[in-house]
Specification:
Blueprint: H1 6-13, H2 31-38, H3 49-78, H4 86-131, H5 135-140, H6 143-193, H7 197-234, H8 236-241, H9 245-281
Helix pairs in contact: 3-4, 3-6, 4-6, 6-7, 7-9
């Protein structure tokens, strides 16, 4: 984005900080530590990861076969103007479409079962752990934020540990299959196209840090919003007795505005990142 000054771009993509926030930001945790802590919860369900890996391998192969059929249509049907190959191309393509649908159904059902069983075990353990914490912990922490951690953060852990890994594996295999197909078709043009890979890597590395900051801020704001709502509603008798409704409404609105700003910062980052990737592609 050479036409935008750097300080303007930095301000545009800034997540922002709030020293007077209801809930402080959680300390960052390296991905390796996340895996070490939560990977044991996949015990007893790891055998179901094998079909997920197979689905991740077969899916790109089916996609590549569909693309290969289009090549055959161009080379053997359109160029020579011969419709006879359609007698086997059409049923083959139909079979691939049906097979892709069956594969997608099996993949969705298996991945959902594994994810939900993981969430079931993790949520129960987190709730059991929270119940055993000292009273001093609950005096230091906002109950609404704790509830947000038990629900929303557990889902985020599953997305990172299982769904995210499965999607990343699928994309890596898909990239490998398509890259192999491209090298087979036109190796010199494929190598020339790979020149832009360092640009993609640099953009992804820079924006990943911004995306993590925005995501952390959104989760913190969600905890703050839950904390304010829980405190106000659980003490609604006192709030009404002392006529503090307006003050509580301002607090709730303030946290809503903070969440809105965090969401807009995340949207701005995505809005800049996607066109940048498209420019690199062009």
């Amino acid at each position: 984005m050479p036409c935008i000054p750097r300080h303007v771009l930095r301000r545009l993509l800034s997540v922002g900080e709030d020293a007077d926030a209801v809930v402080a930001a959680a300390p960052p945790l390296p991905p390796r530590e996340v895996f070490r802590r939560f990977w044991p919860y996949t015990r007893g369900r790891r055998r179901w990861l094998v079909p997920l890996v197979l689905f991740s391998l077969i899916g790109p192969l089916v996609d590549a076969a569909e693309l290969w059929l289009f090549k055959i249509v161009v080379d053997e049907v359109l160029v020579p103007r011969d419709l006879r190959p359609f007698l086997w191309i059409a049923p083959t393509y139909l079979g691939l479409i049906v097979g892709s649908g069956i594969l997608g159904f099996a993949d969705d059902m298996t991945s959902t079962w594994v994810s939900e069983r993981f969430l079931l075990a993790l949520r129960c353990d987190v709730f059991r752990h929270v119940q055993g914490l000292s009273l001093g912990f609950f005096e230091r922490r906002r109950l609404g934020d704790v509830l947000s951690r038990v629900t929303g953060d557990v889902d985020a852990v599953e997305t990172f540990l299982l769904s995210g890994v499965a999607d990343a594996l699928y994309q890596v295999i898909r990239l490998g299959v398509f890259l192999g197909l491209l090298l087979y078709l036109q190796w010199d043009l494929t190598l020339l196209a790979l020149v832009i890979v360092p640009l993609f890597w640099s953009a992804a590395r820079h924006f990943s840090r911004l995306i993590k900051e925005a995501s952390r801020e959104r989760r913190r704001r969600s905890g703050s919003l839950s904390a304010v709502a829980e405190e106000s509603l659980s003490n609604v008798a006192l709030v009404q007795a002392y006529n503090r409704q307006s003050w509580q409404e301002r607090r709730f609105e303030r946290e809503n505005v903070g969440k809105f700003r965090a969401a807009m910062a995340s949207a701005r980052i995505r809005a800049v990142y996607r066109p940048l990737v498209e420019i690199i592609e062009v």
